[in-house]
């Protein structure tokens, strides 16, 4: 009885603390001081590009890993997506090869990197770091940015095969010198898209291109939105 | 304010609406779930160094192999995710188990990830075993074997291997011969040695196949073919298939002093005194009188007359002899002769299709002879692998004490046990799931064994260890033309390429290497004078076997199918016996035999003779791991006499019984009430009544209520509340509940049928569910409450009803009084038993849905009752409202590694299924119809761009069931099997009158009464 009352009081306090926590700009992430790169990222890209899917709900600026939109941790090896994707035209799926087959998008094995970097840029400091990992038979311990809670089962392959562009949820990673979190990934944000439908044209725009007429003519793709879609 | 139950215009009751219910309670509005707090932790993503071939992260690979949990050698398909084995399933193409898997096979994963496994080699320093390296251990072993060889002592060295079929025994003998060591003893404490010997002599095959479908009558003389006699899985497959025929099904009579699980599945029980079965067989064969047999058996002569008449009239009968009495060999021979005389051989008893599981097995007498030799100082070295004779032999053998006289003892076991902990050097073998090997379960078919993952610990396959030691000896190296044991297995089937081709099914034509087992030791059983007014049956546990399963929490937590006892040892006695010595359930009693005594709580069991006691073997270990300590060791009661074939006579010890000074213990049981009290939960019908059409067809029809047919769309016209406005019959917007909705979410109605005529109560489904759904075990002694610890010891949580099994086997006696008041009538000793697996019924009109204040449970458009774990705040009203009591609450943090109640001490947590959420403290959980498998199938068909095929996948329980009793699928689609089964004439819902519209349909069990007593319509 008394523990029950205390529990109700605690829940009430917690709920009130979460109300009204939205703000218009993305805040600096809590924790260690930002590096210059992180600050530049955040200022250039930190505000999520508004789109019909950008509903952020009560916890728009935190995520499961405590970072929130703009969270851009320093990685053990400074892997630059723009060099590989924009300049070298590597497709996302070249490294994240499981994204169309598995709930898990996949992370490139160190051997994938060494496939080129045994030779390419072999003397550069970051490549030297990478090669040291490889020579010591240690995998590179990347810092995770995007995570949904363990009670949510998110299937990458369903989304990828439905035509949702990677940039819709992850932002323009190809333009990020250091990857940061571009969307909140919270449930409200997911549900918006499931309910309103995914517009292929918007997905193409999110990737930084203008959709052609064929894409503009495509209807929105909707998805089931009952709880068991993700929570089971 | 009253709850709105008015009848709407469409004529059906509107049911309870959630808002109204909550208004009544005085709680306004719906509380939202607490938002997931951020952990604030930095989490790493670790990639592969080199990506393995043919592996997609997050997608499972499946490897076929062979199970080694008992001698049968069933085929496994092991699901491996990201390099970890997470689920064992039966191989559908395997001739022995055909896709089914028993609870012990499911638990092989808990052997693989057992927290008490040896993690590296060990050697003895003084009193303790200390860790060492493989180099050191191999060097010691080589030195010792070299010594043996050079001194010519090999013929006196003993190697005791846990009996397994396949090429390894022959390979082992070959390696041992290189050191001059005699062929090893292949020991299995579970093997019915006397029966094997008698069968071989009478039929020419040690274990013929039993074709129950060809029989019109089955008579078992203590042969527990469903739980401990022979090969349970194929026997259960055959038995259930035969019984499932209903009209053509054989009648089954069980003759024995204790009604085992097999006995409870019989249509009639003749409670014959232990040792009197031979007299009954003689009466049937015409070699003795029925009156004499009845006198010896202590039952009414009418029962014997009836049995004799039935056997003589049966067109084809299957007569089976049990294996653990003093005269087991004579009984088996007599039964075999009777089978021949009745023309059953070739019809119901099929030697040509026999199983080779027990070829070359050694028995109890071999262990006794070995102990005598060790005691005499004749054995210079003892090697043991997986066998545990220090535990599984009678105290009179004195195996442990004899071991002390052996100068050097080596063990290859992977887990500690009583025998291994006495050894001087331990070179831990891989677990069966990490090993290469083969088995020949039926003649001409090889069942291969392959590793399913990299080794968990620093163990090495014993075959490879011995090979390395042998190759180090220059005189022996030339014998071995292969690099390792895998190479040996490959060479037996024609090379590496053949091996690779065979591995997808792990089945190939061929034969295992054969060996000449050492000649059986002559039995020296003498008719010993025993005193004691009771006969004690120490029986092999259906879940733990001879005790090898005791350190697996799934098996300890699996209630014994007959007594429903878990984590505890009890002394089973008839209620009259209990009254005679003045005890009730739970009061401590002491059983004393010539060998030892045991004090344990009494348990009244109506399936025993009053002059017989029973205690399950397998518990009370002293050195086999943290879970194995639970209970008491009944092996210590076994009097040393073997049967005349040298097998352990587990059912022939005389005992005395006294009340032990008035102390009591709580009985650790999952049984609430042993009787149904007219609730009609597990229903049965006699065959004549069924044929006469008495019970009506299909579901009952209630006046004014909607039909229980499986409609797409809203599953029940009264399931309004979960869907709110969508549920109103004339609402225009049904959202996803509209069968015409673009998502197709409402096209399916997931449902399940369970045929109680086939269900034997074996509980394989229970363990399969634990494995698939990350269900925590709660019975360990450290898992009880930390504050206010008022219940302690193993099973403490279970005494508070906190077991978590999502599916449970309920067992009901059909008797007219409480079990403790049952009186033994030798003329009418019989009683019916009904088993029913009970899990969340996924009610169309679920009582649990409207009462959740946070909408954590709701009805999905496809008919599932979904539990959303993160919304649950732990009110527990849903469980309160559930009439089936199939909702389970996480009272403690079983899923939290930081809490003392954590159920998965490392590396048990490697087994957890990543597709299923691990629940926290304070969360309600229940059967989900394996929603993760439903989703997986839906994802797969979407990826492949096709429609789902009928019966494309199934739930874990249905997949494991060796009776094939459970069928799962889409009841709204005619092409799925379940849609047909749900319309069977025997179909009913449990608590239909509560209007719950369950998705689980049970088919009534069919009883086959004696021909003379057949009821007329």
Strand order of the largest sheet of chain B: 6-5-17-16-15-7-8
Would you tell me the structural class of the helices and strands of chain A? Answer: mainly alpha
**Average predicted confidence as pLDDT of chain B:** 90
**Amount of beta strand of chain B:** 15-25%
Unreliable stretches of chain B: 1-15, 25-40, 718-722
Total helical segments of chain B: 27
Quaternary assembly? heterodimer
Question: What would you report as the Rg of chain B, rounded to the nearest angstrom?
Answer: 29 Å
Q: Could you give the count of β-strands of chain A?
A: 1
User: Which sequence of SSEs, written as H and E, runs from N to C of chain A?
Assistant: HHHHHHEHHHHH
Mean pLDDT of chain A: 81
Low-confidence stretches of chain A: 16-32, 46-61
- What's the total count of β strands of chain B? 38
Computed over alpha carbons, the radius of gyration of chain A is 20 Å
| Helix/sheet category of chain B | alpha/beta
**If interface size is counted as residues with C-beta under 8 Å from the partner's C-beta, which chains form the largest one?**
A-B, 54 and 48 residues
Shape summary of chain A: globular
State the end-to-end distance of chain A.
31 Å
Main pleated-sheet profile of chain B: 7 strands, mixed
Overall form of chain B: globular
Structural notes for this entry:
The complex is a heterodimer of chains A (232) and B (1017). Chain A has 232 residues and is mostly helical. Chain A has 11 helices and 1 strand. Chain A has helices at residues 2-18, 36-45, 81-87, 92-95, 110-117, 125-135, 156-161, 166-170, 187-196, 200-206, 213-217; one strand at 142-143. In chain A, helix 5 packs across helix 6. Chain A starts with a helix and ends in a 15-residue tail after the last helix. Residues 16-32 and 46-61 of chain A have low confidence and may be disordered. Helix content of chain B is 22%, strand content 17%. Chain B contains 27 helices and 38 strands. Chain B has a 7-stranded mixed beta sheet, sandwiched between helices. In chain B, strands 21-25-22-24-23-26 form a 6-stranded mixed barrel. Chain B has a 4-stranded parallel beta sheet with strand order 12-11-10-13. In chain B, a hairpin with a 2-residue loop joins strand 18 (437-442) and strand 19 (445-449). The two termini of chain B are 51 Å apart. In chain B, 57% of the residues are buried. Residues 1-15, 25-40 and 718-722 of chain B have low confidence and may be disordered. Strand 1 (142-143) of chain A pairs antiparallel with strand 1 (44-45) of chain B.
């Amino acid at each position: 009885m008394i523990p029950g009352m205390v529990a109700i009081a605690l829940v009430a306090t917690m709920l009130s603390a979460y109300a009204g926590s939205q703000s218009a700009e993305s805040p600096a992430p809590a924790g260690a001081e930002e590096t210059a790169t992180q600050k530049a990222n955040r200022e250039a890209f930190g505000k999520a590009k508004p789109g019909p899917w950008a509903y952020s709900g009560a916890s728009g600026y935190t995520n499961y890993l405590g970072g929130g939109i703009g969270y851009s941790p320093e990685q053990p090896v400074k892997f630059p997506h723009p060099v590989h994707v924009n300049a070298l035209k590597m497709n996302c799926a070249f490294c994240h090869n499981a994204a169309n087959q598995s709930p898990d998008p996949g992370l490139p094995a160190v051997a994938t990197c060494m496939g080129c970097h045994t030779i390419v840029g072999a003397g550069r400091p970051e490549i030297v770091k990478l090669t040291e990992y490889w020579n010591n038979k240690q995998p590179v311990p990347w810092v995770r940015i995007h995570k949904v809670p363990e009670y949510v089962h998110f299937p990458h392959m369903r989304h990828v095969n439905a035509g949702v562009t990677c940039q819709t949820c992850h932002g323009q990673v190809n333009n990020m010198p250091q990857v940061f979190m571009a969307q909140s990934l919270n449930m409200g944000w997911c549900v918006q898209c499931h309910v309103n439908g995914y517009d292929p044209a918007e997905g193409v725009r999110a990737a930084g291109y203008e959709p052609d007429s064929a894409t503009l003519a495509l209807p929105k793709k909707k998805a089931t939105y009952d709880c068991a879609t993700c929570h089971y | 304010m009253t709850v709105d139950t008015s009848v709407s215009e469409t004529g059906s009751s509107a049911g309870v609406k959630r808002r109204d219910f909550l208004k009544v309670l005085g709680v306004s509005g719906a509380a939202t779930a607490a938002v997931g707090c951020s952990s604030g932790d930095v989490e790493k993503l670790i990639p592969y160094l080199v990506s393995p071939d043919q592996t997609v992260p997050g997608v499972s690979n499946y490897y076929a192999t062979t199970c080694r949990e008992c001698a049968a050698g069933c085929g496994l398909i092991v699901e491996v995710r990201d390099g970890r084995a997470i689920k064992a399933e039966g191989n559908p193409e395997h001739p022995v188990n055909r896709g089914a898997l028993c609870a012990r096979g499911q638990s092989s994963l808990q052997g693989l990830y057992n927290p008490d496994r040896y993690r590296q080699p060990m050697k003895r320093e003084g009193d303790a075993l200390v860790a060492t390296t493989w180099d050191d251990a191999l060097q010691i072993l080589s030195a010792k074997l070299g010594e043996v060889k050079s001194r010519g002592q090999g013929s006196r060295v003993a190697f005791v291997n846990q009996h397994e079929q396949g090429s390894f025994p022959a390979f082992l003998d070959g390696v041992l011969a290189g050191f001059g060591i005699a062929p090893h003893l292949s020991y299995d404490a579970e093997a019915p040695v006397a029966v094997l010997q008698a069968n071989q002599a009478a039929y020419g095959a040690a274990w013929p196949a039993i074709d129950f479908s060809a029989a019109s009558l089955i008579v078992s003389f203590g042969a527990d073919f469903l739980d401990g006699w022979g090969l349970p899985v194929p026997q259960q497959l055959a038995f259930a298939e035969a019984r499932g025929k209903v009209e053509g099904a054989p009648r089954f009579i069980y003759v024995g002093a204790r009604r085992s699980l097999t006995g409870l599945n019989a249509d009639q029980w003749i409670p014959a005194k232990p040792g009197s079965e031979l007299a009954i067989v003689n009466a049937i064969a015409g070699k003795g009188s029925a009156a004499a047999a009845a006198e010896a058996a202590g039952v009414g002569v009418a029962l014997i007359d009836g049995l004799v008449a039935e056997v003589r009239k049966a067109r084809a009968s299957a007569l089976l002899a049990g294996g653990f009495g003093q005269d087991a060999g004579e009984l088996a021979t007599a039964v075999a002769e009777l089978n021949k005389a009745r023309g059953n051989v070739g019809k119901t008893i099929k030697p040509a299709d026999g199983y080779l599981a027990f070829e070359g097995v050694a028995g109890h007498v071999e262990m006794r002879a070995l102990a005598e030799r060790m005691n005499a100082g004749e054995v210079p070295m003892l090697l043991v692998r997986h066998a545990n004779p220090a535990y599984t032999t009678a105290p009179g053998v004195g195996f442990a004490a004899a071991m002390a006289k052996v100068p050097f003892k080596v063990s290859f076991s992977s887990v500690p046990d009583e025998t291994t902990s006495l050894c001087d050097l331990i070179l831990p073998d891989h677990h069966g799931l990490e090993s290469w090997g083969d088995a020949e379960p039926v003649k001409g078919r090889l069942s291969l064994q392959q590793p399913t993952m990299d080794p968990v610990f620093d163990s090495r396959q014993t075959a490879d260890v011995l090979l390395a030691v042998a190759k180090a000896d220059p005189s022996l190296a030339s014998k071995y033309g292969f690099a390792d044991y895998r190479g040996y297995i490959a060479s037996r089937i024609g090379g590496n390429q053949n091996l690779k081709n065979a591995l997808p099914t792990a089945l190939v034509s061929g034969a295992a290497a054969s060996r000449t087992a050492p000649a059986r030791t002559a039995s020296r059983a003498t008719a010993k004078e025993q005193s004691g007014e009771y006969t004690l049956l120490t029986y092999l546990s259906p879940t733990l076997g001879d005790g090898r399963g005791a350190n697996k929490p799934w098996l300890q937590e699996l209630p014994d199918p007959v007594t429903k006892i878990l984590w505890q040892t009890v002394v089973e006695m008839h209620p009259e016996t209990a009254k005679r010595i003045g005890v009730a359930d739970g009061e401590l009693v002491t059983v004393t035999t010539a060998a030892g005594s045991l004090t344990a709580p009494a348990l009244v069991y109506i399936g025993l003779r009053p002059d017989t006691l029973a205690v399950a073997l397998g518990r009370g270990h002293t050195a086999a791991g943290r879970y194995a300590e639970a209970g008491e060791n009944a092996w210590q009661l076994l009097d040393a006499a073997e049967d005349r074939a040298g097998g352990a006579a587990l059912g022939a010890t005389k005992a005395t019984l006294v009340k032990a000074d008035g102390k009591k213990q709580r009985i650790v049981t999952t049984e609430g009430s042993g009787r149904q009290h007219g609730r009609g939960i597990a229903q049965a019908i006699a065959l004549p009544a069924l044929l006469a059409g008495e019970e009506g067809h299909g579901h009952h029809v209630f006046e004014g209520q909607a039909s229980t047919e499986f409609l797409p769309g809203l599953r029940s016209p009264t399931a309004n509340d979960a869907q709110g406005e969508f549920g109103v019959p004339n609402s225009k917007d049904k959202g996803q509940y509209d069968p015409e909705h673009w998502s197709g979410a409402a096209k399916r109605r997931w449902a399940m049928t369970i045929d109680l005529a086939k269900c034997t109560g074996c509980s394989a489904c229970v363990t399969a569910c634990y494995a698939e759904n990350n269900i925590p075990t709660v019975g360990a002694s450290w898992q009880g409450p930390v504050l206010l610890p008022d219940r302690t010891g193993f099973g403490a949580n279970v005494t508070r009803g906190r077991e978590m099994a999502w599916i449970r086997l309920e067992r009901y006696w059909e008797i007219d009084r409480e079990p403790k008041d049952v009186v033994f009538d030798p003329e009418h000793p019989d009683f019916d038993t009904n088993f029913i697996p009970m899990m969340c019924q996924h009610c169309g009109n679920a009582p649990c849905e409207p009462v959740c204040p946070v909408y954590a449970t709701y009805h999905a458009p496809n008919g599932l009752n979904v539990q959303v774990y993160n919304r649950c705040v732990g009110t527990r009203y849903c469980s309160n409202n559930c009439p089936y009591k199939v909702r389970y609450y996480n009272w403690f943090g079983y899923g939290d590694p930081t809490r003392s109640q954590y159920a998965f001490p490392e590396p048990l947590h490697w087994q957890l299924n990543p597709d299923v959420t691990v629940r926290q403290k304070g969360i309600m959980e229940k059967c989900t119809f394996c929603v993760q498998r439903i989703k997986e199938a839906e994802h797969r068909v979407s990826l492949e761009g096709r429609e789902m095929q009928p019966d494309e996948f199934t739930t874990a329980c249905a997949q494991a069931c060796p009776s094939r009793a459970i069928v799962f699928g889409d009841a709204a689609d005619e092409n799925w099997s379940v849609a047909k089964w749900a319309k069977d004439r025997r179909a009913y819902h449990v608590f239909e009158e509560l209007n719950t519209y369950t998705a689980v349909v049970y088919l009534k069990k069919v009883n086959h009464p004696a021909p003379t007593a057949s009821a007329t319509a």
